[in-house]
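User: I want to check something. If I give you two sequences, will you return the structure for each one separately, not as a complex?

Assistant: Yes, each is folded on its own. Here is the first sequence with its structure:
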Amino acid sequence: MLHRTFLGKLLAGALFATLAAFAADLTAGDKKDEKGKKDEPCKGTVVGQITAKGENFVEVKADGEEKARKYVPHWRGGAPDKGGGPDKEMLKQIGKLTVGSRVRLDWEFEERLRVVKIEVLKAAEGKEAKSDEKKKDGPEKKKLVGVLTAKSEKSIELKADGEEKARQYFFMGGAANEDVRKALEDIPTGTRVVIEWMFLERNRVLSIEPLKKSSDK
């Protein structure tokens, strides 16, 4: 009798241990799946019409959506001062696109919507294609006049005339802005200057010159 009782307890213990191990494996598997899902970027594919484009973005109104969405290339190569910038191959593809064309676009979300692949299903025709040809390529360049309030190795701050606060303008990558860096060596903060800038991921300063007073001429 005692032998049967002992054997029954032994079998019950073994069964419990097996079930516990099985449950632990399931839990671990679920956690791995959850971790894998979190690590995967949100991505998808849309089909629709190009409503606008620039040197570093394309805007597509997908079928069934009320508004167009802007898609930009992935950033490659590290920080701008180390030569980093939007993916060059994707910039070339965007440059060949025409507003009004119907496209299929693969995207993923990394800080913002990124275009991974784009395929033209039907090229634009008529007025839409002609109007797009007249548009200037690349981001619009602008000029500002104001006071240089700060400068560093990566950027400057300028309080433009009519603005309440100073804004930050970053240097371009590589050797593109060596002239700006050199010019800044002779321009102390507090000087009124004129800058040329454009928006490329963020405000970028392209050139800077001090404004001379009439008495200095």
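And separately, the second sequence with its own structure:
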Amino acid sequence: MLAIASPQYTWTLFTIPLVKELHAQLSEIQIAFTLFIVGQSWLVPFLGYIVDCLGARGVVATGGVLVGASWVSSGVTHSLWGLYVSYAIGGVGVAAVYGACMGLALKWFPERRGLAAGLVVGAYGSGAALLVVPIRHMIEHGGYRTAFLEYGSALGLVLVLVAWPMMAPYAGWKPPRGGSAAFRNPRQLPPAVVSSTPVQMIRSGAFHLMYVLSVLVMFGGLLVGAQLKPIATAYGLDKVMLLPATDTLSLALMASLSVAAIARPFWGVLSDRIGRDRTMAIAFAVAGGAILGLLQSLQHPLGFVVFVSLTAFAWGASFVLFSAAIGDIFGSAYAATNCGIHYTSKGVAAIFAGWGAAKVLEITGSWLPVLWIGFLCNVLAAVLTVLFFRPMIARLAAQRAGEATSTVAIQPAHSEGHGD
């Protein structure tokens, strides 16, 4: 997960050099980012199904080859279509690794899904933090092609090497007694008796609501991630030095990625303690406030760094909370596939956060309308969570509690009748 972070989180550093080299508009360059996210998210269900059936090792190794090939080919192409195809291939590779890692986390730690999912996606969110400055330095002094070639080769090699130890629990495996099972909090949703198949999940109202919520909150986070350098350049923040040898843009990128490493496990543990629904409402409201603060600090370098980091802190919760909630509501048996299906919402949001946001900029000449839309999306998500998702979870918890009580009440009569 650390190794697949750079194609998404350092993409913004390549946007302006690509515009100049390929003689294209920003909206045309950002189509590559949109295709990357679409490939990364929409293929996760299929790849997750393969992981559920065949295991993670081969899927992760293949993903590593695709990620490395994507950046290498992006460094040698001289056309927009070549860039589109190359970066889309990288999305497929990231999907393979992401789906496998998330599926394994949910399978190995069913009683601590929030923490497990938080650590996994925290690695994905923070993995590029140490590479921001080296990659930017290489782009500025050796060209973006060199950065693609050298770092693409290294990332691909690392992914292939770390794939081999990965394995799922054997059939019938259960967490050790007194370990993770003892962690369950009364506010958590009681475990599902029978796991839902992907088809059953898609037919449920809870899945539809979570899909809409995810599209809304993903838009704001992807917007800031994909357009950070163009936004900073538009307001001259990429030239303002806040620390020795570190400008505002680089500091904002490093700070936001570092914060993500802490934020995602934090949201996961919090959701284990107070429930996924309550944590979602808090996180989405914080994300809306962060984007509102960013709107007010576009002329203030330090404020820009703070609110970009706060946006990353809140946005990272969505990956943890939705994945854990999918496991809670629909069970573990098809965890990789079910999480992958929901993860396609990120691809829907990317259409608007990448190409769509750049198009709005070209029409209006300002980033302000785009950021206002991101703010409103998060506020709407928080409201929908309070009004609809929380009551839905409460009804489901009551239903499962009733089922558990009925099962316990039946057991004594069953035992006596058979002389046990």
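Because they were folded independently, the notes below concern the second chain alone. Residues 76 and 145 are 7 Å apart (CA to CA). The chain has one domain: 6-165+197-400.
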